[in-house]
Amino acid sequence: MDLIKLNNVKKTYRTGVTAIQGLNLTIAKGDFVFIIGSTGCGKSTLIKMLYREEKPTAGQIIVGGIDVGKLRNGKVYKIRRKIGVVFQDYKLLPKSTVYENVAFALEIFGLPKDEIYSKVIKVLELVGLKNKIKNYPAQLSGGEQQRVAIARAIVNGPKLLICDEPTGNLDPKTSMEIMKVLEEINKLGTTIIMVTHDINIVKQMNKRVIVLDTGRVLKDYQKGTYAHENN
Amino acid sequence: MKTIRIILRNIRDAFKGVFRNFSLSFASISCITITLIVVAISMVLSENVDNFTLLVEKDVTIVAFIDNEADQDKIEEIKDKISMIDNVEKYEFKSKQVITEEMRDSSEVFDSIMKNWTDDENPIQNTYQVKVVDINKIKNVADEIKKIDGITVVKYGEGMVEQLISTFEFIHKICIGAVVALILVTAFLISNTIKITIGSRQREIGIMRLIGASNLNIRIPFIIEGLVLGLLGSIVPIIITIYGYTELYNRFGGHLFSNLIKLIKPVPFVYKTSLLLLVVGVLVGMFGSWRAVRKHLKI
Hints:
Largest sheet of chain B: 4 strands, antiparallel
Order of helices and strands of chain B: HHEHEHHEHEHHHHEEH
Oligomer: heterodimer
């Protein structure tokens, strides 16, 4: 069953630049998809439209049954609660501890304290940071900070996890550790869309790969075919 | 239960926000404190001027001098006519004997001159002392009394009273204008200071939006934070109002410059003023935050 469906999506910015043109795409529930392409090919615009940071100029984007393009600004939170987003720069609160950073995502919804605690601990265990709950982001390595960001993104149990170059600031070894964490999350049923420039990761992971070029799908490699065709 | 938890969390986060961003919070609190002190001074001044005007107004009396030829019937007739004039609050007959006694008591010189006067020799006239409801229309009442047969002279400190009252009313209006202007200026100053505070927390707001916080979820903690800033900012002005005014009152013995200018008693005046300062501080803080955070929300 499809979690994401894009029908003839077009995005032109106010500056006149067209980032996405006539894009058709479907992503099934539980999929792990890489989106790759050169700089300016529309990768970031595509994922920004998925979590409704940007609105499509034309066409339809359905995420988890919600027509994202039609959501009013005041209702954007409805789709955000179904999606977790991870960025290259982690976007953590520097003055909050690891625990507080993750719990923050649950507290705003008024969950009971003990429920928040058990969920946060569970998710920090999943990303391997249970022993660092009292640390501040500045006391963590880049890889650890990214794991905190991942924990925060998945603590609500989103159906979709969007990762915008999550390994962009990390060394290859740490990057692979992050990928292992993401694979674990994917195995638990969360659909993952990851934008990356790191071809080695893409080859090693053997997942579906969508190559974008000038706002269009240049090629859609099904699971396990990318590495084989690009060696 | 869920709502209570959210409210409690918001209150906790508001205090955390104030202390984690202490330097900027301190700027906001100082801004609130300084302007509220000026507001407090203006309020104290305005209320005292108002009170003093009321006292002066209460004190103003029309003295109607009765012809010495008037007999008891005539005096009664004059009383009836005065009682029928609009805007008369009360009137009192003061005989020439009483006035003479009062004058003799007030000065030895008067006493030595007046002590040998007989009733027939006494040139002082019987009077009616008239108080009015609306001081602004005192001239009309005086004019009406003057028309009554048997009244020779009417006195009420013409000119000076009107001038005094209009001066006080002018000062009172200026004070009120200053209070309103100061409150508005405070609101915008605080709003701008909080804007800087919140501007430095754009990241936090961005993350809140990202993880699915609604505009209300984002706005409420900041509004409560504004409330906390307002609350903290009004502490010093309230202390100054309560202790400062009470000290001023006690030091001057309840009067300023002369016995004529009576100060308002500190209790309950200082508590009412303090409550007003607290309300102004809190509302202005909340408004400032609401205005500042609005900019960062895509509504």
